[in-house]
Amino acid sequence: MDCKYFCPILTSVNSDGTVNYEEMHQFYDRILGAGIDGILVGGSAGEFYAFTYDEIKDMIIDAVKYIDKRGFVLAGTGRMAKSETISLSNAAIDAGADAVIIVGPYYCGCTQENVFQYYDEVMGQIHGNIFLYNFSDRTGYDVSEETILRLIKKHPNFIGVKDTHPVLRHTQRYIQEIKSQYPDFMVFTGYDNNCIPSVISGGNGCIGALSNVYPEMCHQAAEALRKEDISALRSIQHQIDKRMKFYEVYPTFNPVMKWALKELGQPMQENCKVPLAPLTAEEKKMLSDAADELWRNQ
To answer: Among 3.40.50.1000, 2.170.130.10, 3.40.50.2300, 3.20.20.70, what is the CATH number of 4-243?
Structure first.
C-alpha cells in the first residue's frame, strides 16, 4: 500500500510575533531527517489565520527555498479574501511549492453551491496543483463528495483533499465515492489515528500534527503500510492512539506541542500568535500528568 505522511508544521514564533526562521530551518531538517515525506507550511498547526498575507507568503517562499526538493512542500494559502487566496497560491506555485492547500471561507455559513462557486472560481485562476482542505469544525460546513466531484470534473489541477474529520467513515466515503471514479485523486486524513485504517481503505496517507513531536513514529507508520507489515501496524496504531491525547488535554494542541518540543530540546519557541498564548505555569502544573505520559517518561 502506498502511503505518504506530511507534517503540518508548527511555527516557531519569537516574543515579538515574528517567525524564528533559524529554528524553522532546524525543525525542517529534524522532520525530514526522520523520514517524513513532506511539509505543510501555513496550515492550522502553523497558526496561519493569525499571520498577515505577507508573513505567510514569506514563510512559504522561505520553506520552499530551504527544503530545496528534499520533501514535498504543500503551502497553505486559504485566505478570507478570495483575491488573496488566488494571489498567494500563485506566488507559492511560482516559488516552487509542489501544491497549495486551500481551506474554504470560514465564519460565514455556506451552502454546497456557495462552496462550489468559491472553489470553482479560485481553482480556475491558479496555475498549479491544488488540495482542498475540509475542516468542518472550523469552517462550519462539510464539503460533500458531490461538490468535490463537480470540481474535479472542471479542474485537472485539483489533485487531492485533506479531510480533517474525526469520524473515519467520513474519510472512507471520500475514498469510495471519489477514488472509484478518479483513482489518482489523493485523499489524506487530518487525524493521525485515522492514518492506518484510512490507507487500508484505499486512502493516500495523513497530514497529521503528531508528526511534529513524533516524526519517527509517523514515518514508521507509513513504512509499515508500504510493507504491509500487520504486526508493526498493530503496535504503531496503539502508540498513535495513546498520543492522540495531545489533541484532548487542552482546547488547542499548538501550545501543548510547543511546550513538549521545548522540553525535549527541539528548535521551537513556546510563543504563539494572538489569540493563542503559551501555557502559563499554572496550566503546565495542571497538565503535568499528561506531560509525564506523553513525552517525559517515554
So the answer is: 3.20.20.70
